[in-house]
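Hello again, I could really use a second opinion on something today. Take your time with it, there's no hurry, and the full record follows here:

___
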Amino acid sequence: MESLFDLEILFGLAILTVIFVRRMRFPSIVGFLLAGILGGPHALGLVIDPKRVEQLAEIGVVLLLFTIGIEFSLKELMRIKQIVFLGGGLQITLTILATTGLGVLLHYPMNTSIFFGFLVALSSTAIILKLLIDSGEIDSPHGKVTLGILIFQDLCVVPLMLFTPILGHTVKDIQSISEIALKALVVVLVAHVASRYLIPWILGLVARSRSRELFLLTILFIGIGTAWLTSQAGLSLALGAFIAGLAISESDYSQQVLGDIMPFRDAFMSLFFISIGMLFDPVPLLLHLPFIAGLIATILMLKILVSGLAIRIIGLPLRASLLSAFALAQIGEFSFVLSQEGLKDGLLSPLNYQIFLAASIATMIMTPLSLWIAEPVTVYALRNLPAWLTRGRRSLVGKEKKFTMSNHVIIAGFGLNGQNIVKILKYQSIPYVIIDTNPFTVQAERKKGEPIIFGDASQPEILDYARIRYARILVIAVSDNAASRRIVSTARSQNSTLHIIARTRYLAESGDLYRLGVNEVVPEEFEASIEILSRILKQFLFTGDDIERCVVEIRKDGYEMLRSLHRTFNHASTVTGYLPGVEIGTFRIKEGSPVDRESLGDGRIKRESGATVLAIKRGDEITANPSPSWTLETGDVVLLLGTPEQLLGAGALFEPQDENARNA
C-alpha cells in the first residue's frame, strides 16, 4: 500500500511539473526530474524510501532499450551509414578523448576520466527528437545529421555498459574480459537465430489466436525474459532488453509490438526520470555552486566544439555542423543509466555522482535555449568567416563539373521532393542543376551522371557555379525555413527576374518568403489538406469537374492572404503581381477539342470562358500576343490570363469532346 501511495504522490507531482515546464516550452523530461527532486528525501520528503520507486524505474530502462531495439532499422541505418558511422564514431571518440584529457589535467584517475568521457559523449535522443519534430526540422540537413549521430550514440550504449565494469576493475583480468565478450557474442548469435526462426513463429502462432492480451503478454515475456537471461549470464538487463527488441524488429509484427508496448514504456520511463530526480541532493549543489557552474559551461562548450569538428571532418558545410553541434550539447538520458553503473563499480564517488546529476539536469534544461541561440550564432559565423571555411569538404565529392547551360532549373535540396522534380524534368528534357549539402548524396548521384553541385545554396559562389544569372527557375526544396529565407535573399540579389518557387511546411511561413521575393510558395500542410479532400470527394463519386471546382474555391480563399503579400512584396516583374485575383494558366490543345483547328478571330476562348490569350507555344517557338488570324492546332500550348474561375472554364475547351457533345 505504501508503494502505491508513493506512486500516487509522484505521478501527481509529475502532472503539475510537466504542465508547468511545457508552458515554459521545456521538454517533459525536465518536469519528471523536477517532480523527483521535489518529492524525494532531499527536498519535501514526500517519498521516504526511494528504493521501491527505483525498482520500478529499472523496468523503465529495460522497456526503453527494448523499444529502441524494436525501432532500430538496419535498412534505415544503411541508408545514412556514412553519417551514422563516420559522424557518430568521430563524435563519440573525440568527446571521450577530450573529456579524458580534461579529467587527467584535473588529477582524476585515468579510468575515472575515461568514464567521464562515456557520460559526456551521449546526448538526449528523447529531448532532441521531440524539439526537432516540433520545429519541423527533422528532415533538414542538420536534422538528418543529428539523427544519424543520435542513432550511433544509442548503439554505443551497449558496448559502453560492457566496458564500465572493466574500467571499475570489477573485471580484473584478460580471462574475465574475454568471458564477457564471448558471452555477449553468444547472446547476439542466439538473438540472430531467434529473430530469423523462433520469434516469428511464436508471434505468428499468438497472432492467429486474435487475442491482444495474449500478444501483449508474449511480448513482455520475450523482452523481460531475454533481459533476465542476459543478467544471469553476467551481462546487464538493459543489454538483454535491447537484443530482444532487435530480434523482434526483424519480424513482420514489429510495428504492432511497438504500438502495444509504447504506453508501458512511456509510463515506466517517466518513473525512471522521477527516480533520478529523487536521488539528487541540492546540498552539494549549494556547496559547490561555482564548480558546478563551470562544469556546465565546460560540458556545453566542449560538446559544441567537438561535435561541430566531427561533423566538419566528414565534410558537411559549416551551417549544418554548427546547428547539429548545438543540438547535441546536452547530457543524455542513457548517461544516467551509465552513471548508476559507474556508482556501483566505484568509478563515481557519491559526491561526484551528485555533481554529475546537477550538471546533467542543467544541460537538459538549457537545450531549448541552446537551439534558440544556434541560428543567430550560425548566421554570424557565415557572414564573418571566409567562404573557404564555411563550405563543406569537396575532397569527398571530387572536382566540380563546369556547367554552361542556360534557361535551366536550379533545385536546392535533393530530398524526396527534389528527386521527384528531377524525374519529371529529366523526362521532359528540361535542363537542371541540383545543389545539396550532403557530400555522400552528391558523391552517389554524381556517379549516376546527375548534374549536382556540393554546397550550401545560400552561398553566392555556389549559386554562381549553378549559373544563377542564366537560370529560369529556382526551386527551393529544403526542409529548413531559415535556410530557405537565406537562399531566397541571396538568389534574388543575383537575379532580379528569376522565378523562385519555394516549398514550406506551414502556411504561416509563406509571408516571410514572399517578402524576400519568392514568386510562388507551396505550403505542404495546405496542399496536403486539398489532396485529402479530393480523395474524399472521389469516394463519394463526385465528378472531376466538381472536385476541381471545390479545389479552386479552397485555393481562392486559402491563398488570398498570400496573393496580397505577393502583390506587395514580390520583386519579380510578373503580370499577376499587378492584377489582383488574376492568374496565368497553360493549356495544351488536344485532338477533338472545341478549339482545335479554330482561328483566334472566332473569339471562342474569350466568349465562353472570359480568359485572354497571352501567348502560344508551337514546337520550340513562342509567339506572344498572337494575331486574330492565328489558327490553333493539336499540340499547341496556350498561355491564358484570367481569374481562377475563368481558367477552370477554359480548361474544358482544350479537352476532347464525345460524339454526343459534338452533335449537340
Summary: Residues 504 and 523 are 5 Å apart (CA to CA). Confidence is low (pLDDT under 50) at residues 561-573, 660-664.
